[in-house]
Amino acid sequence: MSALTALAPVGGEGTTRVRVGVPFDIRHSADLRQEFVAVLRGGGGLVLVDISESTVIDQTGFATLVGAHARAARAGRRLRFTGADERTTRLLRRAGLTRLLHGVEQVRPPRRDTAVS
To answer: Where does the STAS domain start and stop, copy by copy (predicted)?
Structure first.
């Protein structure tokens, strides 16, 4: 898949919606980075990225996914992912980045009292 088709706009008002059709891996990371840069230049507000047709394959892919969020923040935009598979969700959870997942409720672990009676 070329850089021009890696992310395809899917519409929306006030929200830029895109779909990733390639894996987040070392082979596609450069194309995905370029596409994210182009999308982030093209407006304001939330960028909602559907990754239901993709998955994180390797460390470079995970860095590309997280880097897209950081790039959006620097551009004054919010970026969230939707349609993440179980593995990608687990990776983001372990990295403390579940806030990047659109529609995933933030669940905090139960608080433990440290007071000793």
So the answer is: 13-117
For the chain, the C-alpha Rg in angstroms (whole number) is 16
Enter the tokens of residue 5. Answer: 């088709």
The DSSP-derived string for 13-61 is SSEEEEEE-S-BSTTTHHHHHHHHHHHHHS--SEEEEE-TT--B-SHHH
CA dihedral 1, 5, 59, 70 (to 10 degrees): 170
Query: For the chain, which domains are there?
Result: 7-100 (3.30.750.24)
pLDDT at position 26 = 95
| β partners of residue 51 | none
CA dist list (Å): 10 to 13, 20, 105, 107, 112: 11, 11, 24, 30, 44
Give per-residue pLDDT as tens, 12-48.
557 888 899 899 999 999 999 999 999 888 778 888 8
Scanning the structure block, which residue is given the tokens 């507000």? Answer: 45
Q: Identify the DSSP state of 98.
A: G
